[in-house]
Amino acid sequence: MKKFITIAREYGAGGNKIGELVAKELGIAFYDSEIIDLAAKESGLSPDFIKNTEQNLSSGWLYTLLLGSGYPTPGTGASRLGLGPQSINVPLADQVFNAQRNTIIELAKKGPCVLVGRCSDYVLRHCEEISRSEILNVFIYAPIEDKVKRAVEENGLDPATAERDVKLIDKRRANHYNTFTERTWGNRNHYDLLVNSSLLGIEKTAQMIAQIARES
Question: If you average pLDDT over residues 25-39, what whole number do you get?
Answer without folding.
Answer: 87
